[in-house]
Design brief:
Layout: H1 3-13, E1 16-20, H2 25-37, E2 40-44, E3 57-61, H3 71-74, E4 80-85, H4 90-98, E5 103-106, H5 114-159, H6 163-177, H7 181-198
Parallel strand pairs: 1-2, 1-3, 3-4, 4-5
GO molecular function: RNA binding
Organism: Tepidamorphus gemmatus
Pfam family, one: AmiR_N
């Protein structure tokens, strides 16, 4: 077994799973297979508004007439969601999309396929989180760049100097204060806004 394969198995064994499904044979099958995989399993029905602390993955029965609007289903920091469905009609498929699921298992549940669904869902969820972080970081970088450009123009106008010189002034100030240029730029923009608001009409 490779180191990567061992890491996947170890990750699954440390998984805290929540099964949101009525108490019946399907739930017993799912709980049993998850425990055989090594997961810590909690179950509930109907779906609660708050999950057990530290829940990693939720197996959620998608039942449109009872589908609640739950905060953890739309939270960026929410768990991996594996939907459980019994039919494939338009109403169920719409509810499936709305659940933000990362994987699907189909009733009647069987032990075979649960492990594969769990691995793929966890992998997809992790990939999505990494992409979201990269996008957020890129947005922050772009905003910081726009703020610096705006601050450079403000300072150049105030001091009557070229923008290249205004840029160097902001950079020197950031170095001296040991902060980022965007922080200096934000302070400068804020000061400019205050001066505008306090100026007499």
């Amino acid at each position: 077994m490779s180191a990567q394969d061992r890491r996947i198995i170890d990750l699954l064994r440390a998984t805290r799973a929540v099964v949101l499904h009525p108490a019946d044979h399907d739930r017993e099958t799912l709980e049993g297979q998850l425990r055989r995989i090594g997961c810590e399993v909690h179950s509930a029905w109907p779906p609660p508004s708050d999950l057990p602390l530290g829940a990693d993955v939720v197996f959620l029965l998608v039942d449109p007439p009872q589908e609640p609007n739950l905060p953890w289903m739309i939270s960026e920091a929410g768990p991996t969601i594996v939907a459980i469905i019994e039919y494939e009609n338009p109403t169920v498929l719409r509810a499936l999309i709305d659940s933000n699921a990362h994987g699907v298992v189909v009733k009647p549940l069987r032990p075979f396929g649960i492990l594969s669904s769990l691995v793929l869902a966890r992998s997809l969820h992790g990939y999505s989180r990494r992409i979201e972080k990269k996008v957020k970081k890129l947005e922050e970088t772009m905003k910081a760049r726009r703020d610096v450009e705006k601050a450079v123009k403000i300072l150049a106008d105030l001091r009557g100097v070229p923008e290249a010189q205004a840029y160097e002034i902001i950079r020197a100030q950031a170095t001296r204060k040991r902060v980022s240029m965007s922080q200096v730029a934000t302070a400068l923009i804020g000061a400019q806004d205050v001066l505008k608001d306090s100026a007499p009409d």
